[in-house]
Amino acid sequence: MAIDVYDPPALTPGVLRVIPLGGVGEIGRNMTVYEIDGKLLIVDVGVLFPEEHQPGVDLILPDFAAIRDRLDDVLGVVLTHGHEDHIGAVPYLLKLRQDIPLYGSRLTLALVEAKLKEHRVAPITRVVAEGEHTELGPFALEFVAVNHSIPDALAVVVRTAAGLVLHTGDFKMDQLPLDARITDLRAFARLGEEGVDLFLPDSTNADVPGFTALEREIGPTIERVIAKAPRRVIVASFSSHVHRVQQVLDAAVANERHVALVGRSMVRNMGIAADLGYLKVPDGVLVDLKTALELPDDRIVFMSTGSQGEPMAVLARMANNDHRIEVGQGDTVILASSLIPGNENAVYRVINGLTKLGANVVHKGNARVHVSGHAAAGELLYCYNIIRPRNVFPVHGEYRQLTASAELAVETGVPRERTIVAENGVVLDLHEGVANVVGQLDVGYVYVDGSTVGEITDADLKDRRILAEEGFISIFVAIDRQTGKVIVGPEIQARGFAEDESVFDDVRPQIVAALAEAARNGVTDQHGYSQAVRRTVGRWVNTQHRRRPMIIPVVIEA
Amino acid sequence: MAIDVYDPPALTPGVLRVIPLGGVGEIGRNMTVYEIDGKLLIVDVGVLFPEEHQPGVDLILPDFAAIRDRLDDVLGVVLTHGHEDHIGAVPYLLKLRQDIPLYGSRLTLALVEAKLKEHRVAPITRVVAEGEHTELGPFALEFVAVNHSIPDALAVVVRTAAGLVLHTGDFKMDQLPLDARITDLRAFARLGEEGVDLFLPDSTNADVPGFTALEREIGPTIERVIAKAPRRVIVASFSSHVHRVQQVLDAAVANERHVALVGRSMVRNMGIAADLGYLKVPDGVLVDLKTALELPDDRIVFMSTGSQGEPMAVLARMANNDHRIEVGQGDTVILASSLIPGNENAVYRVINGLTKLGANVVHKGNARVHVSGHAAAGELLYCYNIIRPRNVFPVHGEYRQLTASAELAVETGVPRERTIVAENGVVLDLHEGVANVVGQLDVGYVYVDGSTVGEITDADLKDRRILAEEGFISIFVAIDRQTGKVIVGPEIQARGFAEDESVFDDVRPQIVAALAEAARNGVTDQHGYSQAVRRTVGRWVNTQHRRRPMIIPVVIEA
């Protein structure tokens, strides 16, 4: 459903304006803009991955239009953690203004810098840590430790003349995380005492009842599977999941196996995590792929990417027998990851392929090899109760999850009218402890396809979907302007319609006749002749085939 | 992975040959051919629904090629139950030979006849029931009651000179089904005592641990939700799920609500089920849609289709505010169905849409509103133990599920070498208590698109995928054969590539130049000139856009 777009009033001094450009009403491309007294602060600049109705799109960016001519007023970008849906669009923002300072934890900034290097951008960075305070013009920032599926994640407190905002970024409340770095509920409590005027919680799992299981419960499962594995073990997971990889390393050591990291992003990210001390690599456990391939089958674990069935990733290529690691009878594959909606068929194709090759495939469906990185309903209740926010604006979720998160807030005593369930582009003004919706911007999707940004539009995607469903028929014909007599053609080209070209034999004469008739009826222009061709072919394809391919007439007057 | 295709030897008298043409290595288009002494028996003729990599395909049929010139030897088709993946392709088979007798239960045949009516085919039908025996030439058939997510399902026992085959069709072992018609384990035990030489079990849920919950556990949940619902209730489920609808009718009555059936297939199937007494309709509970729309909100339940997010189905249209039933604040929607892999994003879009409209959406993810129709691992173990088959050929499943089913057989004592995990087109010969693979036919996908059957090929689908990912650029140019000088054009048409036509301005002169150069290099034929255009545009698009659209040059020599 389209939403009503309307402009907000001019921003009055001392009022804080909050505008999410992404991540509200969707899972991905998180980006929130804060403005007060003419200055802007941005929290996260992520990418969204396309769904099946966005074919050929590589990435989807937040729509920067709302801030394009305000870039000089941006005092900084805070990055809560190093996942693509929070940092992936930073290179595209910095291409608009390269010297925007980036604030984030050590690991987060290291991952961003590696990414920016590939885009040949050298950013200005400011490393911050939990407990730290930073002044950015009218914005007084405080950083709070949160636990997530990547280390060193931070929530950010934004204090301004308008009040206190707590923006969690992605988080969960694992009480026994591998790095003992828990979500700082003491800080949440202290902030609650001080008074949180606006709370923006990660709501990804707000519709999941109960509590997220402990990450450390996965280690023993992986260890048992590896201990029982007669031959090679391949573990696939997310290339940024340092603690998951840590557990695989430890399980490998316990079973006297070496580990080879496979896949560009896995090698790059774990290299960074190890250099900075977030990944503890036991001496001698890591070997390169070449060495690994020469080790005995029962002495190696391959740690790879591709747990979502991505066709070009390592695991899918193994499943197609198209990788140097040849999976065979007795091998064990562990998919230590979630199954992101929309990827099911791709993942099941990979599982079937690996099973056919003789592998025993262990996954979420048959073993505890994954836990989510997001707080479930039970954990969110803890947060709402300990913070007791005056206003709640659930973010990081589709509409159903934002609604669920707001319901949890209401159950803990937040007045319903102080919960805001909205979508990208909503304009919130915070003033004297009350947050109100004062506008709704029209924020679109910005598609990255190949090297082009924003060149592909929704109209192009609509065409692509039609082409995918029906294919096309193009008709080239050169005619005499006066008589409509065909001089060259009709030359018919079709793709995705029918392999046998002879199907068009009976429509060609109809086209010739239609052009002559159009001329008799006084048509003299290209448009009129094209319409005649379109109508003729359209009628023919509908009656003969009950199909609706795209019809593209090209009539040239010679 | 491609599988090795090889012809089976000529079939010797007294040997039973089994060839699955669908449903083995996939979920859908179930069809198995049995042959002995020159006569054929077919069990099920279903359709498969396309996945996202088969865009625009309406249905996928089993490949009839293997039996196309044997149709006169077919003594009959046994239909185990009335689901589309078991009966959906019957009309297409009967178009090849209309007088093949169809055997099945009352409900199954009634559903088939309704379907055939739409295809204007009047079949020859023979109603059979559990416990019944039928002689079909060399095939002695016995029918056994099984419980499934549609009433009146049958397993079939095929006795021939070669031994006894038990073909379950889809089934589960609900011990307290609504119609008290349980899977007949006594018959399975008796057959086990007699000796089952070949067992073909439904393996859809073989990789699901434990037991399928009781269908009747859903009723109370639905009843509670309806009891609490302040306004309208909309329940969406499968249009053939008689017992699910029965529970909705009963829950509606208990809450003094009327029920309106919405959606063509729902109305048709439930009409049949009610006429035959499978659906017990409490007096006066059913009303038509027009009446329903005039009833008070808290007095009506709409029972609709579309639980899989099918864009054209009732529920998706409601979610888009594009249906006479206008969903609003306080309405309750129950998705009483499974979530078939691949449909997740579509279903979540529907849930988000309904939530935005103010509806409370109850689904599998947050309530017990669905149980599967297939036996889980625990139930299959009962079957294997009570039947103790000599040979096991798991069917109805993807490779991972067939493998899981075979493993269960092995755990109950079936020798591994007597379990056959194969794919469509495998040729099994049963002789003296031993089933062996003796061949592998090349069985393809037969695509139905619009009114065409088999016209769309895999090559067309590949083209469609490329068009979907990248769009196309077609270049029309008329040239002088000798000089390559352009007389008309280059006329460039593109779709799904870029909305702004001006992107092509810089490539047109390159095309003109390339054609002239081609002529200088001695090119004189259309193909050579076309290649020159293709190379030029391909190089341009790759360097300028890093993309790979389909490039279609049309060079005409004037």
TrEMBL record, chains A, B:
GO BP annotations listed: rRNA processing
Chief site of localization: cytoplasm
Keyword RNA-binding in annotation: yes
EC numbers on record: 3.1.-.-
CDD domains tied to this protein: RNaseJ_MBL-fold
Cofactor details (free text): Binds 2 Zn(2+) ions per subunit. It is not clear if Zn(2+) or Mg(2+) is physiologically important.
Keyword GTP-binding: no
Annotated GO CC locations: cytoplasm
PANTHER family assigned: RIBONUCLEASE J
Function: An RNase that has 5'-3' exonuclease and possibly endonuclease activity. Involved in maturation of rRNA and in some organisms also mRNA maturation and/or decay.
Family to which the UniProt record says this protein belongs: Belongs to the metallo-beta-lactamase superfamily. RNA-metabolizing metallo-beta-lactamase-like family. Bacterial RNase J subfamily.
Descriptive protein name: Ribonuclease J
This protein's encoding gene: rnj
